[in-house]
Design a protein that fits this description.
Layout lengths: L1 H20 L7 E3 L9 E8 L7 E7 L8 E4 L5 E16 L2 E14 L9 E9 L6 E3 L1 E6 L4 E4 L15 E3 L10 H6 L6 H38 L1
Antiparallel strand pairs: 1-2, 2-7, 3-6, 3-9, 4-7, 5-6, 8-11, 9-10
Helix pairs in contact: 1-3
């Protein structure tokens, strides 16, 4: 009986340690404090390194084809080279008050000094607009590691189940009365960062559950040791 208890305790401790080490919902996400429908703002892509042996050395963000931006600039980062890929449109397209014949399609950051190490994350920003008059906007991201692995974050969620590689999706605040929406977005308690807050909540829950499992496992191990001493 005491051997079974000891084995069970060891298994529980191992499972708890694995749960603590494994990040929950660690995927490329996007958030903003000022992006609103019809307005201009900044979008920040959070990129965690999920590999335990390789560094992230490249990130490609693809902008939505159906709702292009009239203006886009990419945030400069020390240790990274940034490139903007543009695309000619088959016919002129109107976005807000602007008529476009060419749009930005991709933004690529390539590491020039090591990239994102294991167990770390970094953030990459773009600024532009106008954002579409929709509740949210979805991008696609491609993450490349220095061992050759490429992960595409482009799965659109359907229903309540999150896909394995969800596309970065950002909530847009409603436009303000002046039609710009920037100030309104800031007053909405960071509505655009709701996805990031949800991810943080998932991480906290996973850590709490792992901690509880570890406490239970240690308790079972103590009981087993006491039982063994009494038998001795």
């Amino acid at each position: 009986m005491h051997r079974t208890t000891a084995r069970l305790s060891a298994a529980l401790i191992t499972a708890a340690l694995v749960a603590v080490a494994a990040p929950a919902s660690a995927h490329v996400g996007v958030s903003s404090t000022d992006a609103a429908q019809g307005g201009f703002g900044k979008a920040v892509f959070r990129v965690p390194n999920e590999s335990d042996k390789a560094a992230t050395t490249k990130l490609v963000v693809t902008l939505p084809e159906k709702t292009p931006f009239a203006f886009v600039t990419a945030g400069a980062k020390p240790g990274w080279k940034v490139e903007i890929g543009k695309e000619k449109l088959a016919e002129p397209t109107k976005v807000g008050d602007f008529e476009l014949t060419e749009v930005v399609r991709t933004i690529t950051w390539t590491a020039t000094d090591g990239g994102i190490p294991t167990s770390q994350f970094d953030e990459f920003a773009i600024s532009g607009g106008p954002f579409p008059d929709e509740d949210s906007i979805t991008f696609a991201a491609e993450q490349t590691y220095d061992d050759g692995e490429v992960v595409s974050w482009d799965d659109v969620q359907k229903g309540d189940t999150e896909p394995e590689h969800p596309a970065p999706t950002m909530t847009l605040a409603e436009a303000s009365d002046d039609g710009h929406g920037g100030a309104h977005a800031a007053d909405d308690t960071d509505e655009a960062s709701a996805d990031t807050d949800a991810d943080d909540s998932d991480d906290d829950l996973a850590t709490w559950l792992a901690g509880a499992a570890l406490v239970v496992a240690v308790g079972a191990l103590v009981v087993s040791l006491r039982h063994n001493r009494r038998r001795a």
